[in-house]
Each structure stands twice: as structure tokens, then as C-alpha cells.
Amino acid sequence: MRNKAIVIGGSIAGKLAAKALSDFFKEVVILEAGEQRKEESARKQVPQSNHIHVLLATGAEELEKLFPNIKNELIELGSITSNVTQDIKWYHFGELKHRFKGDINIIQQSRLMLEQHIQYRTEAISNIIIQNGKVVEKLIMDDQRIKVCGITVKCLETGIQENMYADLVVDASGFHSKNISWLQEHKINVKEEKIKIDLSYSTRMFRLKENYCIDGKVIYVTPKLPEIPYGAIIQKLEKNKYFLTYIGYANERLPKNEEGFYDFSKKMALPDILEFLQHAEAISDISMYKVPYQVRKQFEKTKNVPAGFLVMGDAHTRFDPIYGQGMTIAAMESIELQKCLQQLNKIDKKFTQIFYASIAKIVDIPWEMTTTEIFRHPELRGDLSVKQKFQQWYTKKVYEVAATNEEVYSRLAKVIHLLCKPTHLFHPKVLFAVLLHKKN
């Protein structure tokens, strides 16, 4: 067993990475910039906590591998079980999807609840230590400058710096990670791919008044780019709470006050959003959140990438959050980390390269899915390749067919939840349905 691993960041990605590492290291230290977590309080480092989060079906499966029985525990605590094709009322590309009981089930809850329970499970692991109020200043390289052997850390309370050494350092400190600049100090340059999305969220939490319930467990009005760059999601949560989030692309102006929040519902294609507000009581302020870009760091293409330093979660790739892929990808990456540790004895450059190559394969599909959609808006794209033009044409046809065809909708849902690859949508049953389809 290896001696020590350090995880930078106490996010969900950080805790999942720590759990993966705990079976292979005598000691795993999580460094968290924020103060020790208090009950019912979100991490200040995660401003998106006050907005809707989705754990995709694949994410729930991978989470269960890391923390056995966690799904049942969350349900006992109040998580909502939802059948994807039956319990979600989905207005998508100008049509309402036909609902039926399918074979994909998910659990839905607030990010705060999920993160608190992962924290609880993590704290129960004896060789994981969480240190709060610590920020990383720089990476420490070995004498040959080919391996990261530690980090310089500053205590926020005292301002005192110290060096911490480890066999492996994992950066899971989120989108605002400084890993690019840390590596540049050692003349290691990592390329970034940035896609402009100019996404905004406006969210408020509600409780429903008596004798009213929404039509489903999620109501989703998806933006239809480019002509309708806004949408809305109502999500049922634990303790009879509901999130209503408005979504806007390309700097769409979203409401910041109570009157505007109510009036914006009248723009939606479904009357359910307005009806919900008429029967709901606000229990939080309105929270705003902006994501100007989705960003992917290409460590797998960095020839002089150092050994002993791995980057995961949003610190590696930040997706368009509307698709709910972030937490799921973090869980998939943690499982991949476990596999690498099982199969490879040394944490050397080969280990690092194999890990990043594996992560690239995990990221490739959701990255392509999100960019294909965002590039439908002329303000948010460059020149489209022939492949991208075909993808947009074909997926639009699939969306239209899926509104009434259960087989196609089921296959689409499996791709969205990362249970199947996009090639699942090229099955003859889908191809024939697409070719024969005529939009009403």
C-alpha cells in the first residue's frame, strides 16, 4: 500500500476521488479552503449549490460503486425517485414528449443534501483526513523536475505556509483551480479548449400550497436554440421543496426580482410554470449564476505532463451545466482512478498518461453532445464542420421523433444519461423512424 495522497478541494469530485484513493493509500488528506461544514449550509466555494443539480443514471451507478447502499440511504433521507420517461414532463424542440414508464430511474435531491451525505460517508473512512482553511500556493517538483512530490499550502487563519509531501496529488478544486498557472511555473503548458455559452441561471426555492401538485416530478421547458434561448425547470426535492430555475443563453436577461420572476413564467411554452407560481410559496431569495464558457483542459495532449499530479472534475473540464453531467463525470473519473491504481504499480509518467487518456475518453462524448447543441446559436459558434452540421440535423430529427416514438425516446434517454454511446441512436429502428418522419 502506498503512503500518502493529497486531494485539493473538498467538493463532491474531491470526496469521490478521496474515496477511490482510500483503498490504495495509508493516508488521504483532503485540503478544503472553506471552514468546517455546518449543518444545512452550502460550501461558499460552490455558488451553484443554490441551483438545480441532476445526478444522471450513470452517475448514480458509479456513486453506488464508491459508496455501497448510498442510493437507499438517500431515499430514506428524502430523495425523490423518478422514472425518466414517465415522471419528467419535457417540452423539447417545440413538442411535448409522450410519457410512459421506461427502464431508467434516477434519484433527485438538492446538491446540499447529496453533498452532506457524501461528506458523512467520507468522514466515516478512517484513513481520510479533512483539513479546512487551507489553500494551495504552488506545486513542489522533484529534483529531476518530472514528478510532483508535494504542494505548498497556506493556512488562511494564520497566513503560515508549509510544505506537504505525498506520493500523489489530485486537484479537484473546481473550475477556479489554478492548476494551469501552477504548472506554468515549471514551464509546463496545458492547452485549453473554451466554448462560449453565456449561460445564466435564475433560481428560487418554493413549497407548494395544500391541495396542489405538479404534473410529474420534473417539468422541463428546454431552450430551443437559436430562436428560443431561454427555458425553465421545476424539480421536486426532499422535504416537499421545489426548485424553479430559469435558463438563458447568449446573455438572455433573466429576472432578479419577485415581479420579474413571476412575469418571466409567461414566456414559457407550457402554462405549468405560471400555474406552479400561482400555487407555490417562496422560501428563499432569488439566486443568480453565470457560466460564460465551458472549458476543457487537454492534459492528455501535454507531452511533458508531470507524474504524480492528476486533475479531475470541474478542475479538468467544466461542462454546460444544463445537461447535468458534472457530478456524473466526477464519479466516472473516480472509478477510472481506482482502475488505474489497481492495474499499475508505479505512479510514474506512464500512470499519469494512461489516466489522462482514460479521462479524455470519458469526457469526449458529453463534450461533443453539449457543443453540438450550443453551436446551434450563431452568436455562440465558429464555422461548423460537415460532421457538426450532420449531427445537428440528425439529432433534431431524433428529438422530433422521440416526442411520440417510445423506442426512440428510450434510446435518447439512455444516451443523455450516459448509459449508452450516441451510436445507440443509429440503430435501424431509429434510422427508419427518422427517415420516415414528417413534422406536423
From TrEMBL:
SUPFAM superfamilies the record matches: FAD/NAD(P)-binding domain
A GO-annotated cellular component: membrane
Name listed for the protein in its UniProt record: Glutamate synthase
Top-level taxon: Bacteria
Residues covered by the Squalene epoxidase domain: 246-348
Single GO MF descriptor: squalene monooxygenase activity
